[in-house]
Amino acid sequence: MNDASSSLDYLPPPACIGILGAGQLGKMLVHAAQTMGYQTLVLDPDAQAPAAQSSQESLQFEYDDPKGIEQLALKAARVTTEFENVPALTLQLLSEKIPVRPSAYAVSVAQDRIVEKNMIRSSQLHTAPFHVIQHPSDIETTPHDLFPGILKTARLGYDGKGQVAVNHLDELRLAYANMNAATKSSTAVDHISCVLEKKLPLLAEYSVIVARNELNEMVTLPIQCNHHINGILHLTTVFEHALDLKLEQELTQAAKTIAQNLSYIGVLCVEFFILQNSNAGAMSPSWVVNEIAPRPHNSGHHSLDSCDVSQFELQLRTLCGLPLTAPRQHSPCVMLNLLGDLWFKSGTQQTLEPAWEQLLALPGTHLHLYGKTTPRRGRKMGHLNITGRHPNEVMSTLGKCLDILRLPPISNSPFANSSTHDH
Ligand code: ADP
Ligand code: MG
Predict the structure, then answer these.
(1) Is the pLDDT of residue 418 over 50?
(2) Which of 4, 7, 40, 232, by CA, is between 20 and 30 Å from 379?
(3) pTM score above 0.70
């Protein structure tokens, strides 16, 4: 097969960068590309998508439409994706014409939890214990020590969607039947693929973002501590020495190992669970890999204001064959996600614009709104980065911001998981 992607030479501006997907990740990549003099072309079925508003050019096609693929290959010099679920075949077809990074293979691994978990394990890293369910009969062979567990669809889940907590076999049967019924209405598939994952006692969640180029050079952003509510990232804290140095090194190395084993070119995020296993045997791991994202990640948005190289600039650099220099964090930072809920007057369907001017009166606040026209509960509308000289100063500003936004205060340690996750 003719693969135009065998090596990536330096691509100077004003060459055109093609991006599959025009969501907020695409928009922030467009900003990074334009800052450095590149042209951009985004493809997304939604003409109103955030990056379609910022990019010099945009194409409105379904991701598998040959016309869209052809036009993208004609106009762009290189292509990347901001959308994890772009059909791997589209990436493959594009890569026969122009360089595509990351590869269709690497993206396809991240698209399927079963393939992803097997890849992680074959990298000699731990995952949560799990059982594959691809047919109702698979339920009957479920090991009992996986309960209480979380049933997750193998494909297309995000922000906690496609997940159901199950406490025993009967609940698992029901949850799997419901998932099949919900999918059957939209696809011809008889039985969907799922994994039942053991629900682990989490001490904290961390993520590492690694950028890798063809020369196997790798740089990472500072390790990020993530707090989720109802399966959606609520905030990320990035404070130096917040994590034990040995653990930090282990997680960073694990992210690099995964990037290497996938021959990954681009920006990759690896999510980790730190476990509360003080009572567990010496053989149990103290952390496991949760999942990977083959693109910049919500937990790396802090880098726009806290580091001298952002995750989007790293993505651009890997795509354009530019040197990879190690990012340096210059400010401790908290990133707070701004969900659509903030736009609703409490308990009503009436919408209003949150009090940005009050937030922006506080030193160290950086507002990022994605330009989505319709707020919906749980929809990521933007994020707020808060920087300061010391973590305490950042946390104090965060407290004021939460108050202004009428969000509950952070009750326990900013470094530990708030355990508010509830499926
Ligand atoms: P998504 O693709 O929606 O991000 P994840 O698998 O990362 O799906 O799950 C979202 C969140 O749900 C995690 O960040 C974590 O807070 C919680 N979670 C997921 N799996 C488990 C598990 N096995 N044990 C405990 N909590 C979990
Ligand atoms: Mg996740």
Answers:
(1) no
(2) 40
(3) yes
